[in-house]
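User: Thanks for the earlier help. One more: Exostosin-like 3. Can you show the sequence and predicted structure together?

Assistant: Of course, both are below.
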Amino acid sequence: MEIPPQVLVEFTCKNQPKPSLPTEWALCGEREDRLELLKLSTFALIITPGDPRLVISSGCATRLFEALEVGAVPVVLGEQVQLPYQDMLQWNEAALVVPKPRVTEVHFLLRSLSDSDLLAMRRQGRFLWETYFSTADSIFNTVLAMIRTRIQIPAAPIREEAAAEIPHRSGKAAGTDPNMADNGDLDLGPVETEPPYASPKYLRNFTLTVTDFHRSWNSAPGPFHLFPHTPFDPVLPSEAKFLGSGTGFRPIGGGAGGSGKEFQAALGGNVPREQFTVVMLTYEREEVLMNSLERLNGLPYLNKVVVVWNSPKLPSEDLLWPDIGVPIMVVRTEKNSLNNRFLPWNEIETEAILSIDDDAHLRHDEIMFGFRVWREARDRIVGFPGRYHAWDIPHQSWLYNSNYSCELSMVLTGAAFFHKYYAYLYSYVMPQAIRDMVDEYINCEDIAMNFLVSHITRKPPIKVTSRWTFRCPGCPQALSHDDSHFHERHKCINFFVKVYGYMPLLYTQFRVDSVLFKTRLPHDKTKCFKFI
């Protein structure tokens, strides 16, 4: 049964109204009472002062901020109104401004809005409130950011986490397991191994401030930080690869294209050459860790391995670390926290991060394929084990589910690529309550990262290859085998939904395989990957 829309208009106050201008509607009741009413409302009507010389009043601003705070869409009646920071904020994404002569149409205009439009406006309104108006600090920082933007000064660079290195001895020769790099007769990278090189940083300082400021002001995390790079940077057209661009493109076959042999010799794609950093979290499993590091030997495009040492005890003095051809940085943490997995360590010098558990067992060809896919979807989490959120009908709540399914909404970050940009957001922008719950349960950091990326992009993650699990054979039993692990993850999902105010995870019904997978080829052609 459809419930008819209800409209509430109060013409009298139960108590003394707040002082107001002679030409505007007074505020009735206490703030708490008004907020409770607005929580039940989809829209909040805000009538601007009758004096045409006034563009806004304190009463209108109060109504506007209260509506944004609780998720009601402001409907501002009055075309002369100027909303706060109007030259920076795109208020049409969060509020409706209707000329007073059209007041008789308001009811029909509001009923024409779709559910998806309403959700987008409520989300945007809440973002504006939390970012610019919720506290004295946010208001002060907004004023400074507005002045800085107008005089075209970039924001201060966002801080990175200083890595305290644990000294260790290297020298153990790392063998090469043929099963880890099996790709038939094809190499998995260029014949000549390139030395480690960092991704370029801070190339768009001025353009982000001058030409892209509307996006930074109207999307999370706001204009308060300057990032070294983001997954949203524009892409050059294909001509740039061949007409003099010096940014380091590596087209397949020099531009002529090709199948497996030519494909493996160059990265191709739409962005310049780059490498990735492996970030591996470990806790008191030295033998497992050493085996995992050895398996990275000879991995193409690997820049560095950052081992996040979560153990309170330092590594054994006689432990000999493998020599895998790239630097291994062992970072000491202040406390045992799964949030340390996503700290933006200053030792991570690439945009691409492969987050991997110390007991994850992935072949080189799987890692290389995941890296290539991520390069085409830089704003997404790209990884191997898929999971999904399911609706618990009896309890009317969300469940975490790891069963085999044709629909996914999460990719576990125990084996996944993501952009370093999200490490900054996870550590410094995401609500602290989420990180606190991760520390309380020693669980759910991967769910939290999936929530964050889906909230920012409104896109699901991308699963690659047919893998459903990635644990190495013979490794000690992981915490995820405990029943309490799943109960905690159920609680995490429902708590995160409360923090965000909605369920940000989105479903996807496909996985990604290479272009020539299962394609019959002529005898003189080879597939991109032997098994993928």
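User: Great, one quick takeaway?

Assistant: The chain is about 30% helix and 15% strand.
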